[in-house]
Amino acid sequence: MRFSSNIKLYVLLLIVGIFLLLGYVYFSFFTERLNRTTQSGRTLFCFSRRTDVVAVTPWLAPIIWEGTYDPVLVDNIYKPMNLTIATTVFAVGKYVSFLRDFLETAEKHFMVGFNVRYYVFTDRPHDVPSVNLTQGRHISVIQVPGSNRWQEISARRMEIIQTTIESQISRVADYIFCLDVDSKFHARWGAESLGRLVAVIHPGYYEQTRDHFPYERHPASMAYIPMDEGDYYYGGAMIGGFVEDVYTLTKICRNRFEVDAENSIEAAWQEESHLNRYLLYNKPSKVLSPEYLWQDFKAKTKEVKVIRFSGVIKNYAEVRPNV
Ligand code: UDP
Ligand code: MN
Asked: So where does an alpha-L-fucosyl-(1->2)-beta-D-galactosyl derivative get bound (predicted)?
């Protein structure tokens, strides 16, 4: 009796063992298939391997981080569309000195292989450097007035972008990016950044909770955001998207800025405050991680695997008309 119950136990253990073995073989085969790579070496499945960053907003817009997309695949989708990307950059007063590095590094890294039309706004057209542009890329220099207040120069960008979209850009471009000139490109900024309305998370606030965001907090301002609202703190050094959507954004921000000015109000961070207010109620369809807007004085953090675009260190007293 005892002998036969032992046999039963052994048989049971053997069966369980066989099932475990089969399960192991099946799962390793399945996992291997999931991780299978194509001939070009790109992963077919399980592409997003980032677990250290959030790659989607609560309204399901992608947040673009290195390692969450396939640049080859993205290029294969967008390049055949023969898109034209307008890029506005202001270089008023001494900021004209930032243009050379901005343009030369953009030629190496920004929307390479696309038609790019730079619109340089300056009060010093003769000081715009001549930079070798690759095929399909052009520069238009547009004269704008100077000012003795940097706040005004920075804020009037909305108005000037709006009117230039109306008069020229809407006829020639599909997408537009509006960028700060005191910056350089360091790595690919490509078609993964294209979307209907695109904003970038400010590098100074991506690790902060919203009560730390420097939104405009006075209810009297048109840029007001209450303490219990807000998704991200977006950087004013980059606005992008379809020309039509950026047009609406600049038009509304400009109007709100002017209403504030009539009431002698200047929002905490000028047009950046108005941008943040606009984007709270008009959610961006794509959000760029701080890889797309870093600051040279800021040490790289472990989440930021690639710095693509970064503000240079500048001597404010030297370059700005007022401090
Ligand atoms: N700007 C300019 N001349 C000035 C001040 C500002 O052309 O005297 C433009 C320039 O494009 C600059 C942008 O406005 O990149 C925003 O200003 P700034 O870079 O000084 O602001 P920050 O990035 O330091 O907040
Ligand atoms: Mn700047």
From this structure: 202, 272
Quick one: which ligand is closest to 91's CA?
1
- Asked if 137 contacts 118 with a C-beta cutoff of 8 angstroms, the reply is yes
Q: Please tell me the total count of domains within the chain.
A: 2
d(CA 208, CA 233): 9
Distance 198 CA to ligand 1 centre (A): 20
Residues 322, 91: Cα–Cα separation, whole Å = 16
Q: What is the pLDDT of residue 237?
A: 98
Q: Are residues 185 and 253 in the same domain?
A: yes
What is the chain's length?
Answer: 323
Q: Decide if 41 is inside a domain.
A: no
Q: Which domain holds residue 81?
A: 63-319
DSSP state of 167: I
Q: How far is the CA of 265 from the centre of ligand 1 (A)?
A: 20
Atom of ligand 1 at shortest distance to CA of 320?
A: 8
Q: pLDDT tens, 229-282?
A: 999 999 999 999 999 999 999 999 999 999 999 999 999 999 999 999 999 999
Burial (CB count within 10 angstroms: exposed 0-12, middle 13-18, buried 19+), residue 201: buried
SS3 content of the chain, % helix, strand, coil (to 5): 40, 20, 40
Decide the pairing of beta strands 234-242 and 197-201: antiparallel
Active site residues: 272
Which of 87, 88, 89, 90 should be mutated for ligand 1, with most atoms under 8 A from CB? 90
Q: What pTM was computed for the model?
A: 0.87
